[in-house]
Amino acid sequence: MAFVCFRTIALAGNWKKWSVIYVIIISLFSIVAGSGIIVRNFFPIGPLLFALIFLFGMIFSFSKSGGEATKFLTLAALIGFQGFRLPLEIILHHWSTIGTIPETMTWSGQNWDIATGVLSVISIPFVSRSKSAALIVNSIGFLLLLNVIRVVVMSSPLPFAWELSNPLRLVSYFPYCLVGPLFVLPALVAHLLTYRKILVHGG
Length: 203
Hints:
The chain has about 200 residues and is mainly α. The chain has helices at about 1-10, 15-35, 35-40, 40-60, 65-70, 75-80, 85-95, 115-120, 125, 130-155, 180-200. The two termini are about 25 Å apart.
């Protein structure tokens, strides 16, 4: 997954700058989790870390470099890339069964992102030929990603979140903390680049 991200950055131009920033983000997540400070102070550190990756994802996607990346990446590649969410959801479900994360984070709860993984893979032959199909598939996946973010927030140990006996604390521990920068961030960027390729560059 990290290789794909760095490959996308390389295609985008200014790859050194973007790669350095991405490495800094990964390192920051690792250092904060490794220090144990977030265990004692989940709020506001946890939300701030995730705000950082969303900010980076949006800045890169709408930058000139993001536009360069859309010229090289096909719609099939951008949407097919989201297929990684299928095995990821299977892993999350396993983590739920052993008590690592709450059930709300799986398809047994309120996270239905496995549909994105399945839909992305089976739609590859169609999105190459139809921009409308690509737009529909990307929009479904994007909405499901927003739902994942909602479930993450509400499953976390935050003052306004759901009352769970086992709240979501992945960001507090290494290497689980890397789920955000290595999976959530790439998924967000792929969705935004797909929209940009279809709506701005005409596919």
